[in-house]
Amino acid sequence: MGWQRRRSRNAVPRRLIFLTVAAAGALAAQTLIQHSDRLPDISVSNLLGPKPQPIAGVASVIDGDTIEVHGQRIRFNGIDAPESKQYCDDAKGFEYPCGRRSAEALDSFLAASRPVQCTFVTWDRYHRFVGDCRRADGASVAAWMVEHGQALDWPRYSNGAYAAQQKNAEATKRGLWVGKFEAPWDWRASHSDGAAPASIMSRKLVAQSGGLSCEPRRYCSQISSCEDAQWYLHNCSWGRKLDRDGDGVACETLC
């Protein structure tokens, strides 16, 4: 009995242990939140789900860093291209649609050696396939886009994999580097409310196609399909409000 009493006096109370573990967990969670911009997107599917096989086929270009093959949306790993609605300045200071120019350059590059094959890297936070893609002749799509100034190395995800290509593009003033531009990730941050730049808003855009019209303005709740949402995004001056996170996909719940 005396031994048991000594043990109870010297033992650490369970409540104290619980509080210590809880405090440590809270501190770890706070640290994770504060530095989340430095960490890759992690989900249960990334850790536990099966890794997809490489995808090969003829690609449809969505924008300068995203394609679609066999109905699967694929985001190029480690690079970021101007958004579809983004404008940049050329060597003389005149605006030009650098987002559309980037997509056109990608389309021409892929058409020269089909099909494209993409190897899985990860899923992004919207459960889209992020991959490394190559043409039929083995040319790296991401490396070509950066080296020709149609996209930027995105250190947050690339760890500088395309820094050499970007340095070459800047030195030779290719693509974006011929004039002035805003990095796509900065452009998205400054247009997170969906508003287009004033210089673009001043241009009257009234596009019509297949019964779709930019007037009146629409909302995701009024749109019935992903294809329609993407049409509004790429053809209407107000379309960016359908893409709140600026990742090039309108109305995520539909797509």
Give a description of the structure.
Pfam families: Excalibur (PF05901), SNase (PF00565). This protein is α+β, with helices and mostly antiparallel strands and 255 residues long. The chain contains 10 helices and 12 strands. 31% of the residues are buried. Residues 3-9, 31-40 and 194-209 have low confidence and may be disordered.
In short:
Keywords: Signal. This protein has helices spanning 2-10, 14-34, 44-48, 98-111, 141-147, 155-158, 163-172, 184-190, 198-201, 226-235; strands at 55-57, 60-63, 66-69, 72-76, 79-80, 88-89, 95-96, 116-123, 129-134, 152-153, 208-209, 212-213.
End-to-end Cα distance: 70 Å
Assembly annotation: single chain
Summarize the biggest pleated sheet.
Answer: 6 strands, mixed
Report the CATH topology name of the largest domain.
Answer: OB fold (Dihydrolipoamide Acetyltransferase, E2P)
Anisotropy-based shape: globular
Helical stretch count? 10
Ranges where pLDDT stays below 50 over 5 or more residues in a row are 3-9, 31-40, 194-209
Number of strands: 12
Tell me the strand percentage band.
15-25%
Mean pLDDT: 79
Strand line-up in the sheet with most strands = 1-8-9-4-3-2
- The helix content, as a percent range, equals 25-40%
Query: What class do helices, strands and sheet pairing give?
Result: alpha+beta
